Amino acid sequence: MATLLEYLPLILFFAVYKLVDIYWATGVLIASSIIQLAYHYFHSGKIATRHWVFFAIALVLGGMTILFQDEHFIMWKATVIYALLSLSLLVSRYFFNKNLVETALLGLLKSVNEKEQGKNAELDISLPKSVCEQLNIMWMLLLAFISVLNLYVAYNFSLDTWVNFKVFGLMGITFGAILVTMARIYKYLPDDN
């Protein structure tokens, strides 16, 4: 259910675009992002910073798309988000000496372990720093590449092609990167996981 909710704005954006047009789709993207925020608030009592950031970007660029009737503003949304993510990895690692990819991976593994073993289960896992560094660089470069690729597709192909790329291409690239990440850390996972 949580995974579906994460992708709900994107799914609705795609469906409404195919049924109506980009401006209605953008309005639905903003509205479904509000619903997503409300769900997170009522479900867990808080809203993660990333949800606020994604919503703010959707609201500003989506609002400009609707106000000025210019789809180029919404086309910039993915570029801004992926560029900010890439920049976050860069700044946190080289200015604050914190590897966000390592933090996210260990948090995810801990969460999976708690669901399988119970709340008080200890997670006996450590990832080599060199592997975490490689993965941080991989994700930083990949996110920067995606931000540029989104603009390339937006300005060199039709609106239909860009929407399909945004929904299926970006999701495919991200899924592929997740598979590479999992393959890279697999041998460091405990045998029972």
Automatic annotation (TrEMBL):
Protein's recorded name: Inner membrane-spanning protein YciB
A Pfam family reported for this protein in Swiss-Prot or TrEMBL: IspA
Localization of this protein: Cell inner membrane
Superkingdom of the organism of origin: Bacteria
Primary location group: membrane
Its membrane topology: Multi-pass membrane protein
Residue ranges of the TM segments: 22-39, 51-68, 74-96, 137-155, 167-186
Similarity comment: Belongs to the YciB family.
The entry's keywords: Cell inner membrane, Cell membrane, Membrane, Transmembrane, Transmembrane helix
InterPro entries membership: YciB (IPR006008)
PANTHER family in alphabetical order: INNER MEMBRANE-SPANNING PROTEIN YCIB, INTRACELLULAR SEPTATION PROTEIN A-RELATED
Keyword Nucleus: no
GO terms under cellular component: plasma membrane
Organism encoding this protein: Pseudoalteromonas caenipelagi
